[in-house]
Write a structure and sequence with these properties.
Chains A, B: Keywords: Magnesium, Pyridoxal phosphate. The structure is a homodimer of 331-residue chains. Chain A is of the alpha/beta class and 331 residues long. Chain A has 14 helices and 9 strands. In chain A, helix 5 links the parallel strand 2 and strand 3. The longest helix of chain A has 20 residues. The first copy, chain A, is globular, with a radius of gyration of 19 Å. At the A-B interface, helix 2, helix 12 and helix 14 of A face helix 2, helix 12 and helix 14 of B.
């Protein structure tokens, strides 16, 4: 069977349908630039600031895509998700704006501010003990008791289609900026955003090549792309880029990345702090370390990128004041 | 003669023409919001983040509007401006992108980083000694010698028309958000942005009422609106809101504000630091103190605002790391 018939988790039609569902609510983020960043990188740099998206990260796109596609009767019973981070906030906000309940399962030792924020966005937060309790078991019981629908953070076709709407915007905005050929660097965890953008660009801007960007020591996607099979990180904690750390690429997302993405870029995490500082200084946006890693690659590892323009997706900005202050010391 | 025939510095047609000239280059800034800000203000808060504009403030709009309208032969000789701040950067960048020279006259004791940035944007910076030299004399001589065109920071019809394009966007975006009636709070110095937005909204969204916002001690516009004549500030330095401090409202901008704006709002400047912190935390944008003063009024002085929605224009983000770190301590 020819390659083009391989079933993809989301087709361009699925993505366009997700985009139509998102249209009344999504924030269409602009494409930012600064001659000062061009100077650092030695080429034109365009930045897609998804930190400006609702709840401060691209995750709202996937959450809205999945929740809005549910049968209304199913949706009314509510949503459940496992997350202590950006997915939690995206789901909570998207569910609340649909007027339906959401339950977020979080480890009891998650930062208090993340628990408080998720609750303030309208979710019920259920805490579990990482040492003694089984997260999946707790979630499955609550889901069954209440008839909730589980929405996974990346291995879900509707979530991938939602994140892909960011790629549709990049295609349009790059064309408006006269860019037909460039590397598109994407901060990569499980690969939902990366694979989604890749599918969108294959259809809408085939001269743009997506490349996943990860921190040193958590480069499961880069290694998986090299070996041709799913590789695992030795650990999933201990990085300032916590928002984009996952054990492995997703089962749905990896085949997409394998077919459509260029080689991964692996970045020392201290460069993320420098990129956060320049994003503050030149673009006036707030990035979290994991959300700055693609920009870090664009600015400080220009030898890994091809072409006279590079596009960096800045995936999120949920950072606390102490970490941001630390980044500003890089200026 | 009826009021409606009073000649305005810029008509809605002038503004639409400026908008067409800006269209290929201006950054169309989104309208941001957060349920957390709505909670603080007790009403819906919409924020227009002009910190995301080229050079970090709305000033690029007016600069481009004025430079792009010049006769090409005149423009080719170059532009001159007096500014140590956001107007300087807007002019430098707009001139450079037109491929024409610019000269910016700055006091010799301006911060080194502002001088360096203005030069890096392509301008020639001429420094003068505030104590012993006459700025206007120096500028006039250079302008005459080289045939440069002076562009003033606010009392220029083409500059006002350029800033007004921000108002056209607010009109469209407010309608998309279902808002037909609201106070629009605008950070106000000489009144170019405030009067421009007011003219645009009078034509495009007459239910939106513009109100200038200034810091305590520098409330020349608020007092002028009350007394019906141009009032002067006692001093023009010593505020963290330096970007929006001018001695008096403009001669062109004041009559517009007088006819179209609601009462001024006067804000203690320490509230700007709190608003900067919340803009960081909830909107993921970087604001300078003067650029945050309208948001400060929206969040912390809700009793001065009318209606169930308030729109705050966040006019600029050119702030250094120490001042921003100080603001983050408010969280």
């Amino acid at each position: 069977m020819p390659d083009t018939l391989t079933p993809f988790p989301a087709s361009i039609d699925d993505i366009r349908a997700a985009n139509a569902r998102l249209d009344p609510v999504v924030r269409r983020t602009p494409l930012l630039s600064s001659p000062f960043l061009d100077e650092i990188a030695g080429r034109r740099v365009l930045v897609k600031p998804e930190c400006l998206q609702h709840t401060g990260s691209f995750k709202f796109r996937g959450a809205w895509s999945a929740i809005s596609a549910l049968d209304p009767d199913v949706r009314a019973k509510g949503i459940i998700a496992f997350s202590s981070g950006n997915h939690a906030q995206g789901i909570a906000h998207a569910a609340t704006r649909h007027g339906v309940p959401s339950v977020i399962i979080m480890p009891g030792n998650a930062p208090a501010v993340k628990i408080a924020n998720t609750r303030a966005l309208g979710a019920e937060v259920v805490l579990y003990d990482r040492e003694t309790e089984d997260r999946d078991e707790i979630g499955a019981k609550i889901a069954e008791d209440r008839g909730l629908t589980l929405i996974k953070p990346f291995d879900d076709p509707l979530v991938i289609a939602g994140q892909a709407t960011c790629g549709l915007e990049i295609a349009t905005q790059a064309a408006e900026a006269g860019v037909t050929s460039a590397d598109v660097l994407v901060c990569c965890g499980g690969g939902g955003l990366t694979s989604g953008i890749a599918i969108a660009l294959e259809a809408e801007a085939p001269g743009l090549r997506v490349r996943p960007v990860e921190p040193v020591g958590f480069d499961d996607v880069a290694r998986s792309l090299l070996s041709g099979r799913i590789e695992r990180n030795d650990r999933v904690s201990g990085s300032i880029c916590d928002a984009i750390i996952t054990p492995t690429p997703g089962e749905l997302t990896f085949p997409v990345m394998q077919r459509l993405c260029g080689p991964g870029v692996v970045v020392p995490e201290e460069l993320c702090l420098k990129a956060m500082a320049e994003a503050f200084n030149r673009l006036k946006i707030v990035l979290e370390p994991g959300g700055a890693i693609a920009l870090a690659a664009a600015l400080y590892m220009p030898e890994t990128v091809e072409g006279d323009t590079v596009i960096a997706v800045a995936s999120g900005g949920n950072v606390d004041a102490p970490m941001f202050t630390k980044a500003l010391a890089e200026l």
